[in-house]
# Entry
Amino acid sequence: MSESMIIASTLDELYHARQYLDGPVGLVPTMGYLHNGHISLVRQAKMECKNVIVSIFVNPTQFGPNEDLSNYPRNMEQDLRLLENAGVDIVWTPTSEIMYPPGYQTWVEVETLTKPLEGSMRPGHFRGVTTIVSKLFNAARPDKAYFGQKDAQQAAVIRQMTRDLSYPIEIVVCPILREADGLAMSSRNTYLSVEQRQAAPVLFRALSTAKTAFDDRERNAEKLRQVVKDVLSAEPLARLQYVSCADYDTLEELDVITGRALLSLAVFIGKTRLIDNIILG
Amino acid sequence: MSESMIIASTLDELYHARQYLDGPVGLVPTMGYLHNGHISLVRQAKMECKNVIVSIFVNPTQFGPNEDLSNYPRNMEQDLRLLENAGVDIVWTPTSEIMYPPGYQTWVEVETLTKPLEGSMRPGHFRGVTTIVSKLFNAARPDKAYFGQKDAQQAAVIRQMTRDLSYPIEIVVCPILREADGLAMSSRNTYLSVEQRQAAPVLFRALSTAKTAFDDRERNAEKLRQVVKDVLSAEPLARLQYVSCADYDTLEELDVITGRALLSLAVFIGKTRLIDNIILG
# Structure
């Protein structure tokens, strides 16, 4: 299974191609419009698994009614070229009609971890994420699945779901890939105008400034949040939606950092919503 | 894998034993206290699959607060003997702590099909059923899974869940097994006193009388429900909870039967709640 990449669209095509994979299978779920962050997940999967499946599906159920589903960037031709070059065995590109046929009525929900942060800003988002990821797991039956630390809460939610639903799947979370100026790679960066793109590194600058304070022994969570706010308020194109300093495992907001913490934020640059995070400790 | 039956308790024991199964796998989920109805599912699985896994787990999340979880009958020793005789490869007997560890927070829900009938009488029941069956599917990765027609709505809900969540699993629903006097086999029959046991065949007699009317061309659903009520009202030990004449696929109540219909009922005999059903057309 290394010469030619199989492109599966229907479930039967995927099941059929999956049957012939003869070793550990790594799955990399994506919404396409692939960048180096995605490719780093594929490379990690290639290193750890004999076979790699990548799914490309812009999942409608994880977008809110006022979000960017219809505008979400797509470039299937380029995605397939990148994945073929990366040595992927199977690319699965289902349609919405295949994933959510008429009469569809089943949902997978993680209750507690989905409440704060992205969950509070994007109602229903994580129900869409856990449902589609569960479907991808069921259909592709991987041994390992790869997600980016950029979506930190998503990674935590999927780890919880995987454990709770007894999947024999190891969740591998890979580090954030950044542009030279620190902006976390994201398909949504393409929405930014030239001027907005120049302002966008402020997210990572704010996180890094707080990280420096943490490394200088600041353990008061509210003071670290304030550092983030101060850096962001100096950038007129940026509008902070939330900044969080939370326990890494439970995502509960902290007063004082004692163990590992997740410092994360969501920022609007114009109409584009960007998220980023950094791990403390 | 035919000489000796493996008994797995933890997830790791199951995953490990599962790895060595080298052909199609059939799964028979049970709550134990096995009767001939269960064994008929195992036999069907043995005929169709090279390997058979049976799970025994009295799933707490599908019992309501006022239901019979703590009294539910158990006989593990006899169950294991029956399954070994039936040629089962793996018996999986997890504990509640394994299936629902501290911090557990993930649920699988089927929305529409779970609303009427058993769903309306037993709030939360089907959420517990679909969650545990999904966990069994994930952990055992079967090719086919076997359920009894006795729990007709459960079979419909699991078929829907399996399709919706993209499981590459075929759901096989096997006919109801009955005692000589017509009573549908059920672990709960053991709750009945001698007198109650003598009254219990009234469920099947009521369904059969309505079936005779259907075979004599009665297509008015309300008239068929009335036939059931009339037969039941003649049995002083029986108290009808509901009788339904619904579309076989959607479980929506019918006025007139045109296609395949499900005639089903729930009856209390003393404190014991029994269900039964018959397919019309």
Observations:
- Residues 168 and 261 of chain A are 27 Å apart (CA to CA).
- Chain A has two domains: 6-174, 187-280.
- The two ends of chain A are 41 Å apart (CA to CA).
- Chain A has ten helices and ten strands.
